[in-house]
């Protein structure tokens, strides 16, 4: 009986020891798994100054000479311009181009004025028939500031084609309103050498009355009004049609 009791006690102790081992083992294993130490290191310099202007664009920064930024410290980054700088440059360029264009226009105007003054209209060939009245009225209106772009309220406020239409109408000849249409009326004259006083010289942009000797009378623009000019000056190298009507 005593041996049986000792056996039971020994068995119970063994079971308890096993249970303790099983309960402790996972904890020990977990402790082993968590025993590794994790550490980190900054790859950028430490700063102790707080920025107040967080929305301001940064253009440069100061770092230690031995700082290691993973190679980006040696990158060659091209300088770029802000939108404000681009807009300012574009505005300055536009102003320069406008000034240059104005200077060129002024120079050309002075040159044209000098060229026009060198022509003498006192010895123009005599016109006959309706042409005589056309040339006479055209010259009578010349040197008058009646020009108006797109205007047609004769005898004032006339553009080039309205001037031609009005002068011919006063001599009993009806013409269309626009210069492009006037360039198709009547009979075509082959060349300026064969043109006669009273002929129409016109294209899609301008119309005038030929008065002889390479001269014409036309409503030029606001600056010149209605004047006598060389054909080459008024049409500036553009092609044109010479038409004879009446």
From TrEMBL:
<protein>
    <submittedName>
        <fullName>NlpC/P60 family protein</fullName>
    </submittedName>
</protein>
<dbReference type="InterPro" id="IPR000064">
    <property type="entry name" value="NLP_P60_dom"/>
</dbReference>
<feature type="region of interest" description="Disordered">
    <location>
        <begin position="32"/>
        <end position="123"/>
    </location>
</feature>
<comment type="similarity">
    <text>Belongs to the peptidase C40 family.</text>
</comment>
<dbReference type="GO" id="GO:0008234">
    <property type="term" value="F:cysteine-type peptidase activity"/>
</dbReference>
<dbReference type="InterPro" id="IPR051202">
    <property type="entry name" value="Peptidase_C40"/>
</dbReference>
<keyword id="KW-0788">Thiol protease</keyword>
<feature type="signal peptide">
    <location>
        <begin position="1"/>
        <end position="30"/>
    </location>
</feature>
<feature type="domain" description="NlpC/P60">
    <location>
        <begin position="128"/>
        <end position="246"/>
    </location>
</feature>
<feature type="compositionally biased region" description="Basic and acidic residues">
    <location>
        <begin position="83"/>
        <end position="94"/>
    </location>
</feature>
<feature type="compositionally biased region" description="Polar residues">
    <location>
        <begin position="57"/>
        <end position="68"/>
    </location>
</feature>
<keyword id="KW-0645">Protease</keyword>
<feature type="compositionally biased region" description="Polar residues">
    <location>
        <begin position="32"/>
        <end position="48"/>
    </location>
</feature>
<keyword id="KW-0732">Signal</keyword>
<feature type="compositionally biased region" description="Low complexity">
    <location>
        <begin position="95"/>
        <end position="113"/>
    </location>
</feature>
<dbReference type="GO" id="GO:0006508">
    <property type="term" value="P:proteolysis"/>
</dbReference>
<dbReference type="InterPro" id="IPR038765">
    <property type="entry name" value="Papain-like_cys_pep_sf"/>
</dbReference>
<dbReference type="Pfam" id="PF00877">
    <property type="entry name" value="NLPC_P60"/>
</dbReference>
<keyword id="KW-0378">Hydrolase</keyword>
